[in-house]
Amino acid sequence: MGALRLFFISENQSSNTVEVLNERLLRTCDPEPLGSWTLDHRLLRSTPSSIDFQGPWRYQHLLRLGHDPSKTFVHVADPSNTEDPARNATIAIPFDQQSAFANLLTSKYAALWTPKQTVQVQNGHAYAVGEFIIRLGELRLVGVQQRHLGVIVSIQETVAPDNDEPKENGELAGPRADPDPDQLNGEGLRQVQDDIEDLWKQFGISSAKELSNERPDGSRGGLFEDIRLWCELLRLRG
């Protein structure tokens, strides 16, 4: 699976808008535009089991990525879980079933799950730079306020798809196949991380929340582990 790094630039860094970051990227990297990029994320939190319950909370995420638009990923996470991976589950459902599934959670299972927040990426853009795809956009809270929360930047190593599924705006639909064997050696993995770091430096950001799918041994997980990474970033203050 290809390398993935996610960055969240908080709202208090108001000078680092999507327009400013786009301009820096276009000036320094001469990227190939791939069109617009979107993201939709709905977060639910487990309902307290008693009036004095203090946690830990469990979270359920419904995530749709614009570069894999036919699916909605459902991820259930228990932050206190360190030993039983089965308690952290990820599945993919057809996107056209997302509304029905969300209605099921908020009606039939309302005693178990409480809606917390819904966010979207707006004014999003995707670019190809060498063997990487860079996606960035404004993260906004959906609802009465439509509050701006910050900017998300994703830098992902491109991996050839293993089928002929349609692609959105000419962009690769996302990682679906293992990389070439020569990419699996330690030197190759390190070079990829160095290249991502160099791309990130082009944005000139002094501080950002950062997550990576690189494991301690240098390897990377599969698609569902990447989804877990997105959900961890998007939980914010949920």
Automatic annotation (TrEMBL):
Keywords tagged on the record: Activator, Nucleus, Transcription, Transcription regulation
Protein name stated in the entry: Mediator of RNA polymerase II transcription subunit 20
Single annotated GO MF: transcription coregulator activity
Keyword Nucleus: yes
Gene Ontology CC entries for this record: mediator complex
Family: Belongs to the Mediator complex subunit 20 family.
Superkingdom classification of source: Eukaryota
Localisation: Nucleus
Signal peptide positions on this chain: none
Span list, region Disordered: 160-187
Assembly and oligomerization: Component of the Mediator complex.
InterPro entries: Mediator_Med20 (IPR013921)
Function: Component of the Mediator complex, a coactivator involved in the regulated transcription of nearly all RNA polymerase II-dependent genes. Mediator functions as a bridge to convey information from gene-specific regulatory proteins to the basal RNA polymerase II transcription machinery. Mediator is recruited to promoters by direct interactions with regulatory proteins and serves as a scaffold for the assembly of a functional preinitiation complex with RNA polymerase II and the general transcription factors.
Pfam families, per database record: Med20
Single biological process term from Gene Ontology: regulation of transcription by RNA polymerase II
